């Protein structure tokens, strides 16, 4: 498949990102400019950009554990120079974990390990991953249905950190590092002013932005939009996203940055308007809608995160965890509430039956509530767990975001296991 043709089909929405992932899976190289390449292995692994300088190679990100060797091999097919500097765009494992393979190569050749440069908050993030290692392993294992998954920790820390901006001159290349908050609070985007090349990190991911993941720490939709506006003002000729193919051309790069900012600004503006009017979270979740014309763009489709999840994140950023429902301030134990509702309904089986009927009618949100109440009131009843599993099968089928499907699938598997006991 011709890569230019595939890009045009991706841009128009005629090709899914899965087709691009398959095309690059062996470790594909995109020539960005003279002495600059970007290596791709899969959509779900961050892109790695290599810059050839008079003082060796500079890498922007490092890949994740299962793609790091392929990524380094692709770089070595292009250049054998020592890797002198590595820039982490943020602390997620698909951008930092490849440093182990890079260090092992340096050690085997008797060369100094590369200097790592990142925002100061990367240090805090890597420490937090160690502190919450058990939780992170559970969450990631649930999301990818890997019960024994162990979250990778121990990535080498940055040697040099910065706060707002950092200018580097390495072997004749100028690099400007800028901090922004978006998916993380430790994010960096890298600007090569002499090349007019921008490496955005995960501020651009070829999908609807991801500041709403329900099982991750606070993310920053307003700051994400602000960072995209700052990038747009740079007027890059080439945009290297954190995930997905490289975008060539000033107009297209500006459009991608501008559209991403606009969709987030719309969600933030609508949410704050309702918050400032004193409306509760429940009402806001069902009233705020992103512009449909933006979600229709091939690079803004909400296939991973969901705009509704982002609204929750915006609420939490400005308002904390209380959602405006007084019953949620100091709630009764869930099992007590379930037992009381089951008694009022005439038994847990009545709740389960109604949940099944609602799910069959396509009212999966309401069905999930009743299925959980039924299971909470009679947790040992296999028949109720079987109904619960059926409800979540329909919930998963109705969910459009990968994050939503993954979370719902956790409880689908739980219900199936209990029904089979």
Provide a compact summary of the structure:
The protein has 421 residues and is α/β, with parallel strands linked by helices.
Q: What count of helical segments does DSSP give?
A: 17
Judged by helices, strands and strand pairing, the structural class is alpha/beta
Order of helices and strands: HHEEEEHEHHEHHEEEEEHEEHHHHHHHHH
User: How much strand?
Assistant: 15-25%
CATH H-level homologous superfamily name of the largest domain: Metallo-beta-lactamase domain
Strand order of the largest sheet: 1-2-3-4-5-6-7
Essential attributes:
Metallo-beta-lactamase, Chain A, 421 residues, Serine Threonine Protein Phosphatase 5, Tetratricopeptide repeat, globular, 17 helices, 7-stranded mixed beta sheet, single chain, alpha/beta, 6-stranded mixed beta sheet
Report on this model:
By secondary structure, this protein is of the alpha/beta class. The protein has two domains: 3-264, Metallo-beta-lactamase domain (Metallo-beta-lactamase, Chain A); 332-420, Alkyl sulfatase, dimerisation domain (Serine Threonine Protein Phosphatase 5, Tetratricopeptide repeat), CATH 1.25.40.880. Helices cover 49% and strands 16% of the residues. It has 17 helices and 13 strands. The chain has helices at residues 3-12, 17-24, 68-78, 93-96, 99-108, 121-131, 133-143, 221-234, 250-276, 281-287, 292-295, 307-319, 334-345, 348-360, 364-377, 382-398, 402-420; strands at 28-33, 36-40, 48-53, 56-60, 83-87, 115-119, 160-162, 165-170, 173-180, 187-192, 197-201, 238-241, 247-248. The strands form two sheets. A seven-stranded mixed β-sheet has the order 1-2-3-4-5-6-7, with helices on both faces. Strands 8-9-10-11-12-13 form a six-stranded mixed β-sheet, covered by helices on one side. The longest helix is centred in the middle third of the chain and has 27 residues, at 250-276. It starts with a helix and ends with a helix.
